[in-house]
Amino acid sequence: MTITSLPTHQRAAIRQGTGPSSTTTIETIPVEKPGPGQILVKITWTGLCGSDKGLLHDEWAAFGVNMRPETNGIAGHEGVGRVVAVGEGMEKRWKIGDRAGIKWIASVCGECDFCLTGTDEVNCINQKNSGFTAPGTFQEYCLADGRYASRIPDGVSDEEAGPMMCGGLTVYVACKRSNVKAGQWIVLPGAGGGLGHLAVQFARAMGMRVIAVDSGEEKRELCQRLGAEVFIDFQQTPDVAAEVMKVTKYGAHGIIVTAATKAVYAAAPGYLRPNGTLVAIGLPSDPTILAGAPPLLIALKKLNIVGSITGTLQDTQEALEFAARGIVHPVLTKGKLEDLDSWIDKMAKGQLAGRTVLQVSSDE
């Protein structure tokens, strides 16, 4: 094992309680050393994702998705920092000082049918997930699978790379899943939000014609600045579907649903032209909310309803390259790990602009 001088203890945000009233407290816990195949990353910045709120507050309990005891109460899955220790077998892949990113998928088995295809390990049946089945990135020092941590390219700061580990990756893959080609129309409800504003940038970079749907002049200015060709204010537009048809003639080629609301999922198929694709990535806590349309509409218009969640190791590197080339930049709201609960509260109230990143430690 290759190792620098490490402290024996570290700070971590530990969940207290369960359900919507759960909180976190900053506690002192031991720093673990990496075992074979692992690296230890000193986290400088970590993103705050809606999924972190969902797990900390047990929002998906109806689906059996709860933080497992193995997390030690530590959530977070958008962490970036520097490698400070390298476990046995990883010496040729990682060196002390390398920058690494830790994602929702913490590790995969490499042996199941999905891993063996070489392109679809996202569905690995033995995967471990940061903040769900393994300790997450809301701590100063985080163990990572050396095979599955992502190398951060030059030109991407730690705070920008954090949200790319999940938010940016998720919408990038959703753009690919939409099957929308360059020059075709894509609708992005909630385009001014944390996921939406990244989707606007990726879609535009991939040559799509973007219809941004959101409300307010601030969101209009943001979406248009990021490359949206059309902005529809849903609060001032009585019939959004009719406006989409007016712009596109036959309907959009694709729509990515980032908002986890019944209203958006119900309306989305009506924005599509024949053979159009709806990509579901917003995750409602209400199990009665469905993504789809009446079978008659699906059949007559030959609609495609697909889901997408996170991406592969290769997808992550591709998404990071967009940032490294200066094409995609998350709009950031910055805070501190010590204030995690207040940021979660602001997220729940819809008060956060863009993506939120929390500083965990200094890059020293």
TrEMBL record:
It is an enzyme of class 1 (oxidoreductase). It comes from the Eukaryota. CDD domains: CAD3 (cd08297). Its cofactor is Zn(2+). It comes from Aspergillus brasiliensis (strain CBS 101740 / IMI 381727 / IBT 21946). Residues 1-31 are annotated as: Disordered. Residues 19-358 form the Enoyl reductase (ER) domain. GO terms for molecular function: alcohol dehydrogenase (NAD+) activity; metal ion binding. It holds the Pfam family ADH_zinc_N. GO terms for cellular component: cytoplasm. Residues 18-27 have a biased composition (Polar residues). Belongs to the zinc-containing alcohol dehydrogenase family. Its EC number is 1.1.1.1. This is alcohol dehydrogenase. Keywords: Metal-binding, NAD, Oxidoreductase, Zinc.
